[in-house]
Structures are given as C-alpha cells and as structure tokens.
Amino acid sequence: MKRRVIHIFNKVVILAGAVLTLSACDKYLDAVPDNRVELNSLDKASQLLTNGYSIASPAFTDWMTDDVQFTQNTTRFTWMDQLYQWEEVTNAGPDQQDSPDFFWYETYNAIAHANEVLKVLDELPVDSEEEIAQRNAIEAEAKLIRAYGHFMLVNLFAEDYDNSTSNTDLGVPYIKTPETTFYAQYSRARVSTVYDQIEDDLLEGLELISDNFYANSGKYHFTRNAALAFASRFYLYQFDLIRCMEYCDQLLGANPENFIRDMTSDEYLGAKSSITAYPQVYTSPDEPANLLLMRKISLVQRTDFSYAASVDFYRALFAENPLPGTTDERENPALVKGRDITGNTSVFPLRYQSLFERSSLNSNVGTPYHIAISLRGEEVLFNRIECYIYQNQLDEAISDFNTLFARRYSGGDSTTVTMQSLRDFIDPNGSFGMNDQNILFNVLILEKRKEFLAQGMRWFDAKRWGLSMSHDLENGSIITIGEVENDPQWLLQIPNSAVEVGGLEKNER
C-alpha cells in the first residue's frame, strides 16, 4: 500500500423519485402502482433529500483503533472480532448495522436519493426568483450530500490521497446518475478522479448553498457553515494546506471560540452527572459548535455490544495534561461496558444518547440509533492547527490550542500554554530530540484523541498519519498494525456483493 506519511512526529440504490406510468383502459392501472414520491414540486424534492443523509455510522472504525481494548462480557459478533483484528470481514451483510457492508450500501443508498433529486430539478417549473433560489439551494444540498458520501467511502475503502500515486490507486465508483437497471455494473474510479469529482460537487454546492429554505430543520442538513467545515476536511486530507486554511478561516473568523463548545461552563458541568442530560447538551442543535447532525442506526452507543476502553486507559488518557493543576472537563463519568482482558472494568465515554425506535407502539423490538455530530467547529480548529504546524507557523498553532484549552481545562493557575510549557510536557529532558514542530504535532495527536474519543474519528487520522496501533487478544497475544509502511490491513475490503454483482475489483489485503 502506498501512502503519503508526514514524518513530523516520532512516536443499494433506490429509485426513490421514479414513478412507473402505465397506459391501459382499466382505471386501476391509471393510478400510481406504488407509494413512492412523485417529484413534481420543489418542496417534494427538498423533502426527499432528508433521505440523502446516510443512516450508517462510521463509529465502527473505533473498534479498529487503540482507543479500545479486548472486552469481555459483551455481545460480539464474528465480524466485530474480525474488525478488531484487522481481518477481512467475511460474514456481515448489508443489513448488519455497524459493519463495513452496511456503511457501503447505506451511503450509496443516500447518494441515490441525491441523484434522483438532481435528475428532476431542471424539469421542475419555476416561476419566480424565490423559486429559482429555492431550486439552487436544493441543488446545492444534493451536491454536498453526494460529495460527502463519496468522500467517506473513498477514505474507508481506498488508499489515502497521495499526489504521487492517486492517479493509479483504485478508489470507489462515483455515482452521478440514478440507477436504471436491476444489476448495474460499475468500475472503481482512481482515487484522484474521485477527489476531483468530490471537489466539483463541493465547490458547486458551496457556491449555491443558502440557509434561507430550512425553517425548523435545525442542523440536520447541510448549511453553509457545515459545507465550510466539510471543505476544510476535504482539502486537509488532500494536503492542500492553502485551501484548507481558507475554509477554516471563513468559518472560524476573528472569534474561533464561538465555534468551540465551552465544557467549563455551568451548563456542561451541571450535566456531567446525568446520563441523559449530558448527551442532550453535547448534541444539541442549539450548540454553536455542532454544524451537522445525522441520525445513525447503530449499536455503538449500546453498553452491551462490542469493544470498549479499559478504565485504566481512560483515566491515563485524561491524566496526560499539558496544563498542570487543571482538570480536563472532557473526562466525564463513563458507562460500564464489560471488562478488559485483565478483568478490570471497561467503560464507554458518554457522548451520544442511546436511543431506540420501537417498530410499533406496543412492540419491544425496534431500531437502536443515536444522533451523531458529523461536522463540528472543533474539528475545523484542529484542521487549522495541523496546517499551521506543517507550515511551521507555530505561534499561530499555539494560539489556536489556547482557544481550545480555555474551554476544556478548568482550575489551576492558567489555562494557556507556551512553546516552552509544551516542550516541558512532551519532551521534558530533550531525550526524544524533538523539534518544536514534532512537539506540537504530538500535542495535536493527544488532544484530537481526547476530543473525539468513541466518535469514529481516530481511525481516519491514524490511517493518513500512518500511526502504529496494537490490540491485545483473548489468548494474551498482541497484534499490531502500521509497523509496515505499506500495511494492506489499513484498507477495508469492498463488499462481496459489490464484487460479484457490481463487478468491482477487490482491494489487495
């Protein structure tokens, strides 16, 4: 596997809008023979886009990171163990939530809804400037949905973007039209081609996006701020630092703290002791830091499933504190979730609500889900810090760290850091021989790990940074990923049905 690594540190597609028309004398056949939406108005097109946001959570990737340890006394399916051991998943179909296949199919399903809307938009009559503006806003949202879905897919199922290899590395199919055949054949576009098409949709969406047509819809859709946050992530992953910085600055403006949740506030501190109040505050659409919220059908929030962090790891992680004498308010009471390999408690950090939709009013079965924060202000601040570090703009990076720290650490004499204090924290005796860029990069790695714990972010960073990670197994052995630069286990495998029916080429693993 070929991957650009910055050596800066040491350590099913649905035809949702199609309407079948039949001509016959029988009046019964004059009616639409199914219950799909006939897209004959802008309002209906806009409504259909609510299905353009994938219900599949990427948080299953946490089971492949060093944020979790082997966990006993929880329900673990075979494919969960395969993910934990970085093996190819062989027995989880497209209906198995939190599996790679589920993510693949539900994300393409969401993209299909966007494509169906885009197909009919030009055919819908518009009679006023307001309708033209509404049509443009719908088009923008659909293109941003399509771009975001393909971006997530290519970063899970293909190589990272690399200027030297992406013209040959296999990416994923970029689907821009509704599927019209029962068994469609596709091919995997090159990674560079996928990124080019994502960029086209992203920039067109940014140009047309409007926040004027989403009354009472909260942040459950792409707004301009969410699109700017997505752009900052896209260009960072493409390693276009200038463009990444441009979009970071557009969002954060002169007062970046406005987009950083204040976890030292009375609101957050008052909710920390409640397993219901805390996630409600954390994921609230009224929280300025939350830019895009998505409903995810998932088991990751359940305490009786899969893998978790050991309580020893959890405590040790938040004990790594760059501000002596302060308390990291991100360490909140965690829910017990089985035990680690030594028999000590395993825990699940409380971030999202574990919700459940009953299949009927009187049913005890249904669908587990949560509301996830897919884009947020804190990520954009981290993206800018990373760019500053790469460009050796260290004073600016420290300034952004201090913006974050003032809203994460409480108590002590100060909640600000200097280059010297961070050097004393990371490499106090100079034994690692780190330069200032390396020191700040290690602070970035630590702070992002704490910020996004149990939310499906670390895998993407570990993959693009080339971090080495280890897992302990039930038999006492330890396995590692990332020690070999071209480790093929970084790539998730293309689903079997997409290979057998869709004709896609598999990843080499």
Helix and strand pattern? HHHHHHHHHEEHEEEEEHHEHHHEEH
Number of β-strand runs: 10
* Helical proportion, percent range: 25-40%
Major sheet: arrangement of strands: 1-7-6
Round the mean pLDDT to the nearest integer and report it.
89
> How much is the radius of gyration in Å?
23 Å
Distance between the termini: 9 Å
Query: Uncertain segments of ≥5 residues (pLDDT<50)?
Result: 1-36
Principal-axes geometry comes out as globular
Largest sheet: 3 strands, antiparallel
Tell me what the CATH architecture is.
Alpha Horseshoe
CATH topology: Serine Threonine Protein Phosphatase 5, Tetratricopeptide repeat
- Indicate how many domains the architecture comprises: 1
Strand content: 5-15%
CATH class division: Mainly Alpha
Which structural class do the helices and strands define? mainly alpha
Count of DSSP-assigned helices: 16
Describe what this molecule looks like in 3D.
- The chain contains 16 helices and 10 strands.
- It has helices at residues 42-48, 78-84, 100-121, 129-157, 191-208, 224-237, 241-252, 266-271, 277-282, 311-319, 377-390, 394-405, 419-426, 436-451, 458-465, 496-500, and strands at 290-297, 309-310, 327-328, 335-339, 345-348, 355-358, 366-376, 409-410, 469-472, 478-481.
- Strand 6 and strand 7 form a beta hairpin.
Write a brief structural summary.
The chain has helices at 42-48, 78-84, 100-121, 129-157, 191-208, 224-237, 241-252, 266-271, 277-282, 311-319, 377-390, 394-405, 419-426, 436-451, 458-465, 496-500, and strands at 290-297, 309-310, 327-328, 335-339, 345-348, 355-358, 366-376, 409-410, 469-472, 478-481. It has 509 residues and is mostly helical. The protein has a three-stranded antiparallel β-sheet with strand order 1-7-6.
